[in-house]
Amino acid sequence: MMTLIKDDNNLYRNLINGEWVESKDGKYITVTSPIDNSVIGSVPAMTKNEVDLAVQAAKEAQKDWKHVTIDEKAEILYHAADILLKNKEELAGLMVKEIAKDRKSGLSEVERTADFIKFTADTAKNISGESIPGDSFPGGKTNKVSIVRREPLGVVLAISPFNYPVNLAASKIAPGLMAGNSVILKPATQGSLCGLYLARAFQEAGVPDGVLNTVTGKGSEIGDYITTHPGINFINFTGSTEVGQHISQITNMVPLLMELGGKDAAIVLEDADLDLTANNIVAGGYSYSGQRCTAVKRILAVDQIADQLVEKIMSKMEKLAYGNPLEKDVDIVPLISSKAADFVCELIDDAKEKGAKLLVGGNREGNIITPTLFDYVTTDMRIAWEEPFGPVLPIIRVKDKDEAIEIANASEYGLQSAVFTQNINDAFYVADKLEVGTVQVNNKTERGPDHFPFLGVKASGIGTQGIRYSIESMSRPKVTVINLPHQE
Ligand SMILES: NC(=O)C1=CN([C@@H]2O[C@H](COP(=O)(O)OP(=O)(O)OC[C@H]3O[C@@H](n4cnc5c(N)ncnc54)[C@H](OP(=O)(O)O)[C@@H]3O)[C@@H](O)[C@H]2O)C=CC1
Ligand SMILES: O=C(O)[C@H](O)COP(=O)(O)O
């Protein structure tokens, strides 16, 4: 399957109007593995002219695509999901090399993506319009009826991050297509090989020429051009708050759906089941080395149980394996870049200097940061507020649930939080007061299942994702009002 999207020198191509095209001016970006810096491929650094061609193709193709029946579109998506499953070993293998995800998580990402695509097709089949009688509003008349259908928005620009290069691209493409839009995928440069592979799967499944196109190139170079392109009708972005805010500042009247950074808190109350809590904190904080927007990024534990909780977390952390995901099954993998690892080390050093107690880890081997746990973190430390996107967890001890809520809400972010307690009243008390998109009761913070609404408030995002929610975000109501001759 891969041979069509790259040549023998591992120069990858972009999908534009149904053709896999080389870089026109021969400019490529080399993609190296975060594991050992080996070159795994190169992607075109697309020029403005090439971007124009992609947008033009998308615009033209959408005119026919919007008339394709839901059922036909669904068949194509089912086929794409099957192609991904058939090739899951190869795609997961590419993910291991390109973003250093461990193979098991890579496989699970591909499987989850296939499920996501199929569920999107099924959901779109079940989204019906509505008709609203005119006399249901005061002063309305029985001769009026409003018929409400959903219309596509046009050309959707999907910008995906490195950490789920297949899933977070497909979760924009599939609902975008089902809503009748054409889509341009701009994958994260580190992750673009996986993104192109995914586009190939959609093409092979029967997505018509021009309906899905790809644009590669550094966001810092072509980002502004594409996000402000007049041919773009919607931007669906997942990535850092910094870039998300930049996009929202430079765009003009283009609707945005954004999932950005987070500093998800795990709030642990005095009656929590501490084994369950520790399991969730370790899984939630350290999987894929903490490079997940929804990773548990701080623990707010009430004094009464903090010592016991620390002991349990430490004992579970002993089982975390770290190393090279090409060589063995590991939980902790090299971070995406040495710059990312440098940043995490800065946060670790700051916490140490300001007197936090380092309980576990704190070491660096290449791009690997060993799983790290700090206790007695205080609010003057950077690790209390900043998102490491690495395997470092701070414990902030609090006197009670109200102090936990206050610290949780003082964050600029508002993605998710978790509360661990066996008291339903306390669970609701805390959940009601937290300024986040989702509160998990007795579970780690996480996005799935993917048909749940997923959203961030404050600096964590704009709009709501989740299968039905994404389809709705990428479409709009179209209203036709029937005015019958007035009945006597
Ligand atoms: N809430 C969420 O769902 C998620 C949040 N994140 C957040 O993202 C950060 C790390 O992910 P990372 O991929 O590095 O995030 P970035 O924000 O750096 O990149 C995300 C995407 O935006 C592109 N991009 C960069 N600059 C621009 C620009 N000026 N205009 C348009 N697009 C641009 C990138 O391309 P390129 O790679 O070429 O620079 C990439 O495709 C973390 O802070 C994390 O919190 C990450 C994943 C999920
Ligand atoms: O962008 C992210 O990091 C994801 O949306 C998180 O998804 P997860 O909770 O399923 O890991």
Automatic annotation (TrEMBL):
Any Pfam family matching the protein: Aldedh
Keywords for the protein's UniProt record, in alphabetical order: Oxidoreductase
CDD domains: ALDH_F11_NP-GAPDH
Stretches that traverse the bilayer: none
The UniProt record lists the keyword Oxidoreductase: yes
Active-site positions on this chain: 259
Family from the record: Belongs to the aldehyde dehydrogenase family.
PANTHER family per UniProt: ALDEHYDE DEHYDROGENASE
Protein name: NADP-dependent glyceraldehyde-3-phosphate dehydrogenase
Species, as recorded: Kineothrix sedimenti
Record lineage: Bacteria, Bacillati, Bacillota, Clostridia, Lachnospirales
